[in-house]
Amino acid sequence: MAMRSGAAARPSALLGAVLLMGAARAAAETPRAEDPGAPLARAEQLLRAGQTAEARALLDSAAQGADAQTLARIADACLRAGLVEDAERHALRAVRLAPGAPRLSLLLGQIYSVERKWPAAVERLGEAVRTEPANPQGHYLLGVTYSLMGEKEQAVAPLERAARLLPEGAAFRYSLGLAYLDVQREADAARELEAAVAREPRHASAQLNLGWVLIGLGRNREATPHLEAAARLDPRNPAVFFLLGESARRQGDASGALAGLQKALELDPTMPDALFALGTTYYLRQEKDKAAECYDRLLAAHPRHVGAHYQLGKMLLAQNRTDEAIEHLRTAVEIDPAAKGAHYQLARAYRMAGRTADAAREAAAFRNLGQEAAEQGAGRPEPLQPLPRKP
What we know:
Blueprint: H1 11-21, H2 38-48, H3 52-63, H4 68-80, H5 84-97, H6 102-114, H7 118-131, H8 136-149, H9 152-165, H10 170-182, H11 186-199, H12 204-216, H13 220-233, H14 238-250, H15 254-267, H16 272-284, H17 288-301, H18 306-318, H19 322-335, H20 340-352, H21 356-368
């Protein structure tokens, strides 16, 4: 299942964070001019209604001769509407009028992050946190920016500071939990995600990611109520039902596993984790034909799925269909040379086919990968992958 975002996340990812937190307002240090009033309010209404052209004209009119405070409000409105270039233009004018205002640095840092101008974003957000170290939003946005850049280790410290400054902030605790997941601190991630859902029970992604990390920690029963909450909040998300099925499967509840996995595949018929887990569930129930059908469907959509090649190879070998088994098992080890179980089964297949030299080579490869049980590796369901994030 896809998912941890890579080094260059889409601009909409940080824009979601902006919407979640509320965009920065203008600097308190700058003098206030007369409020632009009706034109700006009308433009914001038009933006919410999707009437972008008319709204932009009103905003540009309101910006004529405006002070830094008003320009920052206009930039903020543009940013929240996704008019990022307009937001940058107005914010830069505001900064020229009030160059030392920390919250203008915060606003411009957000804009640069949405535009993926990473060095400029870090510079501006760094200025903001240095001049306003008690403002949790600056630390939060700096941490989110590092995360979107792929600098996972660097993201943790500013997000920790944000959470310390405002421990009741559900968004801060949620983002810190995801940052801990990025650096394999699963127990810390569970703690922060639990804090997030305690403060905001309707945060579907927090419930979903908490369920995922609890499964990874072996706390399957604790995961179930969070996943059920996520299903109520986000009933069209196949990842929710995959995890409900996976949690049930790990608890030995085959019927619950089938129900969750089948629902996931109704929503996403080619979801690789759900197809593989459903095939494994059928395999363990001795429903080998249904298992093979799942693996075949999986390979039709994802032809380089190591686990599906391994499982089909093992099943074909059990039916003495040696040549077909060798084809799948050889593909598995070509894709993943560290798949120990596939090397072991391929050695067996070569021996059955009378190819002793090939069998000896694969047996040596298996031994070189370690002395763990033969079924370790591709023969087991693949580890759960991080989930899609919804800011």
